[in-house]
Design a protein that fits this description.
By secondary structure, this protein is mainly alpha-helical. It contains eight helices and five strands. The strands form two sheets. The protein has a three-stranded antiparallel sheet, covered by helices on one side. Helix 1 packs across helix 6 and helix 2 packs across helix 6. The relative contact order is 0.17. It binds flavin mononucleotide.
Length: about 220
């Protein structure tokens, strides 16, 4: 990365603040696209991108950035990008195993069986544990989603906008508004995005000192 690019990149990280007061601003579609594109470029577990992003412009109109089932979309992309047939078959196999691993089954029965299998496997080899219960799956998905959210906020910052991540919102009403199912979807974060108001007085930013935050082993 060129020195100037790294400087701009670090600036976006260090200058980003959770802004609480915005001036009215229109965000042009090309800027919106860049911000959302940066969000979807975040890394995700098994590249599953287990999230959807909703860009809500006004209370009355919203634009949903939706995707087909990720593995199907990735397969279609591999075909149009002329990946070798062996690679496509390999990905199909991995996606199938992923679907089986992630399926909790009725009353969580499959999850319990898989947990027992992984427990035994763990006795003689070191292995990770896939997210088996619904709760674990939400937690798993929230990690990848959070990275996309951070990408989104940093991209907005780099493009001269400000953001505020929020979990203080009415989950039930917002889910209803977006047409989400409480059983299958979790809203990880709401991010306000716009231009910081001139009237907004930014409080000093506090962080724990580096040596209290990091342990070097
Ligand atoms: C997961 C998460 C949830 C947050 N929820 C809210 C919120 O509901 N309302 C709010 O005003 N700020 C919220 N914030 C912003 C934090 O208060 C803010 O990031 C923190 O105080 C540090 O300030 P800074 O980001 O300006 O450095 C949230 C931040 C995160 C990461």
């Amino acid at each position: 990365m060129a020195a100037e690019t790294s400087e701009h990149f670090l600036q976006a990280i260090f200058q980003r603040r959770a802004v609480k007061l915005f001036d009215p601003v229109e965000i042009p579609p090309c800027i919106r696209e860049q911000i959302l594109d940066a969000a979807r470029h975040a890394p995700s577990s098994f590249n599953t991108q287990p999230y959807k992003l909703y860009w809500v412009e006004t209370a009355a109109s919203k634009t949903a950035v939706s995707m087909p089932a990720t593995s199907q979309a990735q397969l279609a992309w591999m075909r149009t990008s002329r990946f070798p047939e062996a690679k496509i078959r390999g990905y199909q196999r991995t996606a199938k195993i992923g679907r089986i691993l992630f399926m909790p089954g009725p009353f969580g029965i499959f999850a319990a069986v898989k947990r027992a299998l992984f427990w035994f496997l763990n006795l003689w080899m070191t292995s990770g544990m896939p997210p088996l219960s619904r709760h674990e799956q939400f937690k798993w998905a929230a990690k990848s989603t959070s990275l996309a959210c951070q990408n989104l906020m940093l991209a907005a910052q780099a493009l001269g906008l400000n953001t505020c991540p929020m979990e203080g919102f009415d989950h039930r009403r917002l889910s209803q508004y977006l047409g989400l199912s409480a059983r299958y979807h979790e809203i990880v974060l709401v991010i306000a995005i716009g231009r910081k108001s001139h009237a907004y007085v930014e409080p000093p930013q506090w962080r724990r000192p580096l040596d209290a935050t990091v342990t070097v082993l």
